[in-house]
Amino acid sequence: MSAWSPLIRTVECAVADLTSVARGKVVSRADFEALRGCKLPSVVLGVTLTGGEPAAVFGTLLPEAYGDLHLEPDLATAVPVPGREDRMSVICEPTGLQPDARRFSPRAALRRMIGRLADAGLRATVAPELEFFLVERHADGLRAAGVPGGSGSREHALEIASLERTSHFSAYFDALFAACAQQRVPVTGHAHESACGQYEVNFAHGEPLAMADAVWRFKRLARETAVRQGFLATFIAKPFLDQPGSGMHWHVSLQHTASGLNAFSDTEGRDTPALRHFIAGLQHDAPAALALFAPHDHSFDRITRGDASPTTASWGGDDRGVAFRIPPSSAANRRVENRLPGGDANPYLTLAATLGLGQLGLDCAAEPRPVPPALPRSLGEALDALEDNAALRRVLGDALVDLYVGIKRHESAERQAQAQPRQGWDVLHLTEQA
Fold first, then answer.
1. If DSSP codes are grouped into helix, strand and coil, which group holds residue 191?
2. Are 351 and 126 in contact (CB under 8 A)?
3. What pLDDT digit, counting tens, does each position of 343-362 carry?
4. Of the candidates 430, 391, 370, 433, which has an alpha carbon nearest to the alpha carbon of residue 142?
5. Whether residue 148 has a cis bond before it, omega within 30° of 0
6. For residue 151, what are the CA distances in angstroms to 107, 156, 231, 232, 281?
7. β-pairing verdict for 122-138 and 248-256
8. Do residues 110 and 395 make contact, with C-beta atoms less than 8 angstroms apart?
9. For residue 84, how many other CB atoms are within 10 A of its CB?
10. SS3 letters across 393-408
């Protein structure tokens, strides 16, 4: 902190909730340095997207009295706030309470998983691909965003990979990528995707915690930049039923710590048994993990309707219809692409589950199933599978699983109480937060 510019007067303490919302507080630099972080009421860990307080959470997992948490900063994540030369932003994890509040932290769960890989002599390299929509809110729901500037031009038909359509939003992407550069979010490119108003952004590869931080920060920057330019950016999984949905695809490889060699291929470029074992671990518990990869009722429209999204826990080579794809690559870059997660998933939970289940497959030398397991058809079914799943409880911890299930069931019940949830609850609560 002493190395920070003397212009820095305030610090944004940001903590990730179970969706992708950044919660926290802006404090003076002096208070931040004195407290080594800041205080925040524990209620923030248990509220739903609508501010609900599930009875299954408060009084059992979290205190009803809303005792204070301490947000402990990871100073390695300190970055400038775009447009504010006087403010830094730092990613924090919750501590305090009894037992420690860190057990409810998605980021802490991912850190623990990285530690388990290290204990096994392995490290992971990951690279995300993230899809999202630029939209406008109208009385009848969402529409693809019109071209800024008042021309009235609007996309009415699929313009996949259209450079002209992409150029209409160049001011948006220029501002977004400039903000990414300030916050060390390693984006490498973008393109128009397979639906009206849909774009994909690619990221460089890196170590898991840094890349999960990057995706979490990117989603916030994308939404904030869009609002400033007069439209919305949304990561909800399927804004339009007649068009493809948005995914958060993770490319994952493992390296032996001692040698640096890829664990999924040998020196001759052939697949090793570890590749099959890793995929088998993902495949075996995919029905329960889907509650994390598809975190809202709305998310299941993407899973059940296909459109290049996987509908079973299938695996294979260069096929974008499978859940776990092995892209063409050199021996050094042999990897698995997890295509199940939607754009609305939490990156920390998604990576923790992917790495954790894959490692469990390695531990028991599991083999992929010849017939891929069916996936749940609803959030309720997926939450039931997660609640009863011993593997993901081992990976994430009982407290985090129980908190997640309690919050998501509360949100689901609230949504189902509405007559037209896609036009009401989803547009109001998911569009700018998922």
1. strand
2. yes
3. 999 999 999 999 999 999 99
4. 430
5. no
6. 43, 15, 15, 18, 52
7. antiparallel
8. no
9. 15
10. HHHHCHHHHHHHHHHH
Query: Going from the N-terminus, what domains does the chain have, and what CATH number goes with each?
Result: 10-103 (3.10.20.70), 112-430 (3.30.590.10)
**What are the φ and ψ backbone dihedral angles of 325, each rounded to 5 degrees?**
-100, 145
Q: In this structure, which amino acid lies at residue 405?
A: V
In angstroms, rounded to a whole number, what is the distance separating the alpha carbons of residues 283 and 277?
A: 10
pTM listed for this prediction: 0.96
* 139 Cβ contact partners less than 8 Å away, ≥ 6 residues apart: none
Dist. CA 342–CA 291, nearest whole Å: 11
Which pLDDT tens digit goes with each residue over 229-280? Answer: 999 999 999 999 988 999 999 999 999 999 999 999 998 889 999 999 999 9
Q: How far apart are CA 85 and CA 8, in angstroms?
A: 7
Tokens 């609803």 locate to 378
Return the structure tokens found at 141: 């729901």
Q: What's at 333, amino acid-wise?
A: N
**Token pair for 4:** 């920070």
